[in-house]
Amino acid sequence: MIKQRFAKAAGVGAMALALGLGSAGDALAWQTSFTSNGKASQSSPVRSVTKGKHFLNVCIKGNGKTKFTAELYKKVEGKDPLIQKLSGKDSNVCWMAPFKQMSAGKYYFTVHYPKKGKQVSGGVQ
User: Fold this and answer.
1) C-alpha dihedral, 18 to 32 to 90 to 82, nearest 10°
2) CB-based contacts of 76: which residues, under 8 Å, 6+ apart?
3) What average pLDDT does the chain have?
4) Domain 2-124 class?
């Protein structure tokens, strides 16, 4: 129940922020959530983003002691280029990268977070 509330609150918070900043780009590109598996890296599903200014946001439920790194990639043939990188701690807040001009295409993010069973949500706004 707590995990679901956190995921909903994180999604609603990111959506409210995106709607407030909607004049800078599309109001909401995409948002996803999952439970961390404790492995070195975990990826989100690949989703479409329209051309415009967007930013990566990531929220992790925790006590503020464990560091994480999130990276946004564009899906292309060959090696996927790194678009944005975000680092922080699992402190029950959403971390947001600065706005960046992005071309239309398919994007996904990876999270490097060592703890298992924590709620992670994020996406591109």
Assistant:
1) -80
2) 105
3) 82
4) mainly beta
Q: Write out the two tokens for 38.
A: 């404790």
37 burial via Cβ count (<10 Å: 0-12, 13-18, 19+): middle
For residue 41, what are the contacts with CB-CB under 8 A and spacing of at least 6?
110, 111, 112
DSSP state of 21: T
pLDDT at 30: 86
State the Cα–Cα distance between residues 76 and 90, nearest whole angstrom: 30
Does pTM top 0.85 for this prediction?
no
Q: Give first-to-last CA distance, the chain, whole Å.
A: 26
- What is the arithmetic mean of pLDDT over 107-121? 92
Q: Does residue 75 contact residue 108 with C-beta atoms inside 8 Å? A: yes
d(CA 56, CA 46): 14
Report pLDDT digits (tens) over 38-51. 887 888 899 999 99
